């Protein structure tokens, strides 16, 4: 598992650590790690000696880190030039070190560079870039390095222009190939559009772990976590002990949603899938192992319910939703079930002790919450989770999972391939299977989003992916993950 911390918590940890160290130690540690990573990148593209390195230097410690790293590269024979965006507030010791090592300052953006180090602003910045900095960022695309290639862009701590605590990108911002960050990850590295601006994120250990005592703002699961959590049968298992998931999905108008949610559920860990709805004949024809009935009341025993995908918003759909919510079982509400909540008729039904998971996309979130997720997607998901007392899985490129207690997870495996009709139905079935198998709701949501994202990536290898392609990729992804 990876974890990210908010700026205030990072600053407090840095202050506590600096009190125990000689002055300047943290900056030297950061600069050394930054220079090392830049040197490796240059070695891979022709070597450090003679390489043209451009430093974009703002004020404060971020600029100091950049200048000291530039000095280290200059001492190895790189041609290092620093463009000072705030000369009156430049880190003087760092600038002196650069000049002593043979680096220079420049007043204008050059036309050639092999590597650009983005030290314009660090984690303490707020708002978008100032116009002069934004203009420079826009012109970076015109630079060329060795053999006419564009330069490698390395962001120092975070790409300049992103909002660190929310992952928002309000205006012009740097798009980095590599981001070298210090001490710990920050939310912008893992959530929102900022995460896609970071490129590969490299973490430099500066000794912050022992003073970083606050809870993380965002958690990110890794493959080992998913493999550890995933329910597995043993020698004593039977189809009931593995869990039985019920699907109240699809309708006469949308039978495909029933089929796709069943396919997702069958790829999960449960031993049986039961289906309730008007598409029961189509479901059994496609999936003979599914036990089907026309209505929830006739379904039989299950351990968790999935409700809403393609259900419609008719009176019959409302009756099925009420039947599901009236149980004492974990329930996942998706798509039309979320839409049915908006009118308020089901407010009493939501006051239940059993776990509830909501899986909205942005439009459904807006209808339910009364406002769009906005710039702070993680915070918005957490507020909705607290209001509904439900685990909220807010779909997107960096899907967010938030618990009522404020725990936030970001999914790292999102793919544009998942932006296709029916993909969410597959996710709902898979997540419901995990709930029925006994996985706690937050872990079930995190694991389902992770595997679903990997399936989307695999499906896209053969061209534009459809929801059936994503569903078909679940089994091979799980086979590799769990082996």
CATH fold group of the largest domain: UDP-N-acetylmuramoyl-L-alanine:D-glutamate ligase
Sheet of most strands? 9 strands, mixed
Number of strands: 18
Shape: elongated
Question: What is the CA-atom radius of gyration, in angstroms?
Answer: 26 Å
Q: Taking all residues together, what is the mean pLDDT?
A: 95
What level of helicity do the residues show?
25-40%
By CATH reckoning, the class of the largest domain would read Alpha Beta
Q: What number of structural domains do the residues give?
A: 2
Which homologous superfamily in CATH is the superfamily of the largest domain? Ribokinase
Q: Give the strand order of the largest sheet, numbering strands 1, 2, ... along the chain.
A: 12-11-10-13-14-15-16-17-18
The amount of beta strand, in percent, is 15-25%
Annotated CATH architecture of the largest domain: 3-Layer(aba) Sandwich
Q: Which structural class best describes the helix and strand composition?
A: alpha/beta
- Give the uncertain stretches in residue-range form: none
In whole angstroms, the N-to-C terminal distance is: 19 Å
Number of helices: 16
């Amino acid at each position: 598992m990876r974890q990210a911390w908010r700026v205030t918590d990072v600053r407090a940890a840095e202050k506590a650590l600096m009190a125990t160290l000689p002055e300047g130690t943290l900056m030297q540690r950061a600069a050394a790690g930054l220079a090392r990573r830049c040197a490796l990148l240059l070695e891979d593209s022709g070597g450090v000696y003679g390489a043209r390195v451009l430093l974009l230097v703002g004020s404060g410690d971020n600029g100091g880190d950049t200048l000291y790293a530039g000095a280290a590269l200059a001492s190895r024979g790189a041609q290092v030039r620093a463009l000072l965006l705030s000369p009156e507030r430049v880190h003087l010791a760092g600038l002196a070190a650069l000049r002593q090592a043979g680096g220079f300052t420049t007043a204008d953006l050059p036309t050639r560079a092999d590597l650009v180090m983005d030290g314009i602003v660090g984690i303490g910045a707020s708002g978008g870039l100032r116009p002069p900095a934004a203009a420079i960022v826009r012109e970076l695309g015109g630079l060329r390095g060795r053999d006419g290639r564009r330069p490698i862009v390395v962001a120092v701590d975070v790409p300049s222009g992103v909002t660190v605590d929310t992952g928002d990108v309000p205006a012009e911002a740097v798009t980095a190939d590599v981001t070298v960050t210090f001490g710990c990850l920050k939310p912008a590295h893992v959530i929102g559009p900022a995460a896609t601006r970071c490129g590969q994120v490299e973490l430099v250990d500066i000794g912050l772990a022992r003073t970083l005592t606050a809870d993380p703002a965002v958690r990110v699961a890794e493959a080992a976590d998913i493999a550890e959590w995933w329910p597995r049968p043993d020698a004593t298992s039977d189809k009931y002990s593995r869990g039985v998931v019920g699907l109240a999905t699809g309708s006469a108008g949308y039978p495909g949603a029933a089929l796709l949610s069943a396919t997702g559920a069958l790829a999960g860990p449960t031993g049986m899938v039961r289906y309730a709805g008007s598409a029961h004949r189509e479901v059994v024809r496609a999936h003979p192992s599914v036990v089907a009935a026309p209505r929830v009341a006739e379904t039989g025993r299950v351990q968790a319910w999935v409700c809403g995908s393609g259900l419609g918003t008719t009176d019959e759909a409302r009756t099925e939703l009420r039947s599901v919510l009236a149980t004492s079982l974990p329930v996942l509400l998706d798509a039309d079930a979320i839409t049915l909540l908006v009118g308020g008729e089901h407010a009493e039904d939501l006051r239940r002790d059993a776990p509830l998971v909501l899986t909205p996309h942005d439009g459904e979130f807006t209808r339910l919450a009364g406002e769009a997720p906005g710039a702070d997607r993680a915070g918005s998901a957490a507020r909705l989770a607290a209001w509904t007392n439900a685990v909220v899985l807010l779909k997107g490129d960096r899907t967010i999972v938030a618990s009522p207690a404020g725990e936030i997870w970001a999914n790292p495996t999102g793919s544009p391939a998942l932006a296709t009709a029916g993909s969410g139905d597959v996710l709902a079935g898979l997540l419901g299977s995990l709930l029925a198998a006994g996985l706690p709701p937050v872990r079930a949501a995190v694991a389902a989003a992770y595997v679903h994202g990997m399936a989307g990536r695999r499906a896209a290898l053969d061209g534009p992916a459809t929801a059936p392609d994503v569903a078909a990729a679940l089994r091979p992804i799980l086979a590799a993950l769990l082996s």
